[in-house]
Amino acid sequence: MTTHVLSDTGVMLDRSIKHVTRSLDTIITVTIMPIAFLLLFRYVFGGAIQADTDNYVNYLMPGILLIAIASGISYTGFRLFTDMKSGIFERFHSMPIVRSSVLWGHVLTSLVSNGISVVVIIGVGLVIGFRSSAGLLAWLAVAGMLTLFTLALTWLAVIPGLTASTPDGASAFSYPLIFLPFISSAFVPTETMPGPVRAFAENQPVTAIVNAIRALFEQQPVGNDIWIALAWCAGILVIAYAFAMAAYRRKIA
Known about the structure:
This protein has eleven helices and no strands. The chain has 253 residues and is an all-alpha fold. The mean pLDDT is 85.
C-alpha cells in the first residue's frame, strides 16, 4: 500500500510539474515578479528607507522570499480548480490509484516550484549584494521554516481550489497574503509605523517569520520569534489541512 501511495503520488507530481514548466505565466509570477520587487527595493526605494542596517538587501531578503511563496501558491488553487472543472479528478478516481495521491501531487508541486523560486531569488540576491554569515544549521533552519510556511499556505490554497466557482475565486485569496509582508517588518522597522498599524504589524505572522529568518541569516539570537513563527505556521497548516481534506472528501463522495 505504501508503495502504491508513493508511486501514484510520484506520477501525479510529475504530471503537475510538467504543467508548471509549460506555463510561462506561472514562471513569471513566481520568480520574475519577486525579483522585480527585490530590484525595486534595492535600487529605487532602498536609498530612502532607514532600516538601521548597512546592507539593505540583507534586510529585505526574508520578506521577498515570503512574497515569492505567497505568489506561487495562488497557482496551486488555480490548477486544482482547473482539474476539478475539467473532470480529470473523476477520471483519475475511476482508475486503480490511491485517491489522495491526486491532491498530494499538487501540494508537492507547490513545494518543489516554490523551492526552486526561492533558490533563484537568493542567487539574484547574491549578485546584487546579499550576504549571510549563517552556518549550515542556520541555513537548514531557514529552509525548514520556508518549507513549513509553503506547506501551510499551500493547504490554505487547496480550499478555494476545491470550492471556488470561478478561476478568479480560486486564486484571488492569495492577494491579501502577498500584501501582508508590506505591513510587517519585512521592509521597514515596525517602530516607524503609526500606532494601530504598528500593533497589527507586530502581531501578524509575517513579522515573526521575517524576524526569525533575518536573525538566522545574520547568525544573531532568534529569541522568541522563531517559536512564534513556528506556532503560526503549524497552526495555519493544521487548520487549513483539516478544512481542505473535509472539502476534498465532500467533492469525491
